Predict the structure.
Amino acid sequence: MPRASTTSDAFNAIAEPRRRALLEYLAPGERPVGDIVAALGLPQPSVSKHLKVLHEVGLVGSRRDGRRVLYHAKPDEIRPVHEWTRRFERYWRSQLARVKERAERS
């Protein structure tokens, strides 16, 4: 079975660790490519490639400021990923509560 394209949805796009790091860096606010390159220690072409993928799936937006392009994370578009992972968070909380309960009975 062929692997889904990284631009098919948010889940495939964030499967790449550097894209997750890029999203984390953009979470507080807008940044130009040069700042991203410096902060993440990645080559500029690599940052541009990852930004393009994140932009295509809607997780990153951009705007022009003179000659610069500023990129920002789009939190509302990340919501489906958050909601999906929350299901597992509830599962693990339940599991940890059971372990704690058993430990306290011993």
